[in-house]
Amino acid sequence: MPLHLAHSRQLFERARQVIPGGIYGHATPALVVPGASPCYAHQAEGARYWDVDGNEFIDLMCAYGPVVLGYRHPGVEAAAQRQAALGDCLNHPAAVMVELAERLVSLVDFAAWAVFGKNGSDMTTWCIQVAREHTRRKKILCVEGAYHGVDAWCTPGHGGLIEEDRAHVHRFRWNDEASFDAAVTRYADEVAAVVVTPYHHPLFAPSEMPAPGYLAHIQARCARHGIVFILDDIRAGFRLHMGGSHRYFGFEPDMSCFSKAMANGYPIAAAVGKPHLRRASERVFLTGSYWNSAVPMAAALETLATLEREGAIAGMERTGRALAAGLREQAGRHGLEVEVSGPPACPFLTFRDERNLYRNQHFAAECVRRGVFLHPHHNWFISAALTASDVERILDIAGAAFECVARVPRSGSAGPAPGVMGTLSQE
Amino acid sequence: MPLHLAHSRQLFERARQVIPGGIYGHATPALVVPGASPCYAHQAEGARYWDVDGNEFIDLMCAYGPVVLGYRHPGVEAAAQRQAALGDCLNHPAAVMVELAERLVSLVDFAAWAVFGKNGSDMTTWCIQVAREHTRRKKILCVEGAYHGVDAWCTPGHGGLIEEDRAHVHRFRWNDEASFDAAVTRYADEVAAVVVTPYHHPLFAPSEMPAPGYLAHIQARCARHGIVFILDDIRAGFRLHMGGSHRYFGFEPDMSCFSKAMANGYPIAAAVGKPHLRRASERVFLTGSYWNSAVPMAAALETLATLEREGAIAGMERTGRALAAGLREQAGRHGLEVEVSGPPACPFLTFRDERNLYRNQHFAAECVRRGVFLHPHHNWFISAALTASDVERILDIAGAAFECVARVPRSGSAGPAPGVMGTLSQE
Fold it and tell me: Which of B11, B287, B289 is closest, CB to CB, to A66?
């Protein structure tokens, strides 16, 4: 039985009249399996959501990361409402801004200070400016295929860019020390900053954990050459470790950017840094109409407190391990070999020896149809609301989906799935 | 009696330990009168707010613009809560995204489509990229001293920039057709876009309304040369006219950016554009973790409906006119000549024949001390919650403040007030 998507389709047709592409950005239907996914959500609670056609899904995407305790977590909602009853967007910050900065500085071992914005990009971009101000150098090094936001220096899109936007942004290969060393050698005293994610999570490909010593090597070279080492921890931060993902992987950057798991869906981003960057950070102007808003800060304080109090991060790791083991087992039963890559709390499934993702799309469509929402081209996210019985149900559905995939002969094509991979650059 | 600010000071001292500058951006105490303004807000309702020391203020800043119906407007709060009870940040947009895009396209006469972000900068920056994509040209022309956000091409800050950031951004003088024409002539076929605000509202100076025919002249030249004409309506949009501020001033841009008054403090920004820019708009990638969030969209729909239903824009214009007339009269009683500049709903007061703003600072400090929060260096904002009796009370307090200002001999200095004007560039 195919998924009932009539209302999603109607809304999308209306949207296409008045919104370029109907839905743009990470939620665009062009990035999932066209016609096999809802386009509009109606309601969400815990680890479940319902689309506008009334279909119910166990959720493995968590709004692409922000939802870490489950949708509409009672404690976070109550904290947000308490603050909202006083005020949100005001002439001045509220006291919660100071409390939240103190909290981040106490959670993140190297951090002496914190600032807040709305988008992840607000923070990655501001951090490279702080690095340029601190070093008086121009060059930024980052990893091929890494996502750091939509600002001109880093967007994966192609439109509207001019060559000056990236004249001083250079890419090296993940987990390739020689590639990194060559970039540093080539640009030597011109490099202001290196920006990395704590593990590599490109679209359309398995996630790659850092090789032993790789990030420590980058850290050491940055220290030697006076390069600012920036961790883009927006996707993984506070999902892998309460102290930031550098603690999970065992290294230490000079600045870190957070956003997604910070406030369980309330809009906020943060950057933290070492003491020696404080003066430069004071000289790079940052502001936004809603950057001092108090409700997301209250939500962040409660989210962080709940994560800690409930041992939620260890729980998500356990849940993710059980899910990954179960997926491998279910696939094996149907003669399929899958790779579940990335940290357990941010898993991604691919079929071995297949680069075109046709089977990923097939598998995702079969899961979505049966009530599990997961993504064929983007890593998934585990929330603390996902229970052991949810995982059992997911595995039952995955088994049925693997059975469907196993019945279809392998495609001979080595190329990407048509109409999907052209959307965004993988540099 | 000086204002009691002990708790604000304590919090600020704590903040300085963990936040660069303690408070950064537009709310930094460095931009108001140091020591004469609260730093932290506790609670707000209608046209009033209370700081963390319990001081009560009639508010003339509206959180620097977003609050247009008054703080915690019951209708907007109820609409936001209804949506929040379903969900906010989800895997897909909610139906309200389509409704809001349809609403903007129906409100703004030239608009065929709309997109949404969080920050004003998200939209101004995306619009110049759309213009570059559409024209395949690089140059951006904007007005000296105009504020379009904090992205590298436009930030008023100095730190962290490199020359490439603005290699193709050129400035012309407000209300000076010859200056604009010279820029267009000079860069001719290289100009992708002209970006203007509907009136000129620089920091540290009176606001300047457009001279008759000035914006129509820009519009005509843009049309003749295939330049995209972008209106940055973030500060004034939906406070001067339900159809966008170009209707208030009688001209027509190709794209407009909105944010502040759209959702009464809920974080959202929007851009709308003409049909011929739709294809380019589809090619410039835009996204953000919270850009599809449903609560601010529901709040925007309710804010726009309330503005329209209650005739709030005409009301704010009347309130602003009464305030401006009363301020001039009160100043005159004390032998002071003041200019109240800008549209009535976004007034700004300066003392004639004084460029250093010492008397502005003195006046603001005396008003704040007596319970009216207004700004010495930034335009003010009227909300629909400000009543005639609020205006009477403001004028009483302004009278007392003018009396204090009149008692102090004029400063002979022609320079800016120390420690304030160096903070931001006025290009």
Answer: B289
**Domains of chain A: total:** 2
Residue that the structure tokens 């629909």 belong to:
B384
- What's the pLDDT band for B34 if we cut at 50, 70, 90? confident
For B200, the token pair is 């000129």
Q: If you count residue pairs, one on A and one on B, with CB atoms under 8 Å apart, how many are there?
A: 338
Domain match, A289 and A149 both: yes
Nearest to A259 among B41, B112, B289 (CB): B289
Q: B118: which chain A residues are within 8 Å (Cβ-Cβ)?
A: 118-119, 267, 288, 290
Say if B393 falls within a structural domain: yes
Measured N-to-C along each axis, helices B74-86 and B294-309 cross at an angle, to the nearest 10 degrees, of 150
Residues in chain A: 427
B193 in helix, strand or coil? strand
Using CA atoms, how far apart are residues A235 and A68, in angstroms rounded to an integer? 11
Residues of A in contact with B40 (CB under 8 A): 92-95, 97-98
**Contact residues on chain B for A15, CB-CB shorter than 8 A:** 97-98, 101
Domain end residue (candidates: A309, A339, A365): A309
Say whether both A255 and A298 belong to one domain.
yes
Compute the mean pLDDT over every residue in chain B, rounded to the nearest whole number: 95
Q: Which amino acid is at A155?
A: T
* A23–B contact, CB cutoff 8 A: yes
Q: Is it the case that residue B416 has pLDDT exceeding 50?
A: no
**With a cut of 0.85, is the ipTM above it?**
yes
Do B173 and B284 belong to one domain? yes
CB of B30 less than 8 A from some CB of A: no
CATH of the domain at B388: 3.90.1150.10
Take residue B383 and report the two structure tokens written for it: 């909300």
- State how far the Cα of A44 lies from the Cα of A61, in Å rounded to an integer: 12
Q: In this structure, are residues A30 and B114 in contact, taking their beta carbons and an 8 Å threshold?
A: no
Weakest-pLDDT range from A26-35, A105-114, A119-128: A26-35
CATH number at residue A214: 3.40.640.10
List, in sequence order, every residue forming a beta bridge with A59; answer none if it has no partner: A373
Query: Angle at the Cα of B41 (from B37 to B42), degrees rounded to 5?
Result: 140
Does residue A140 lie in a domain region?
yes
Do residues B157 and B295 both lie within one domain? Answer: yes
Res B172: pLDDT: 98
- The answer to whether B86 contacts chain A (CB < 8 Å) is yes
pTM exceeds 0.90, yes or no: yes
Q: Is the pLDDT of residue A424 over 80?
A: no
Q: Are residues B303 and B315 in the same domain?
A: no
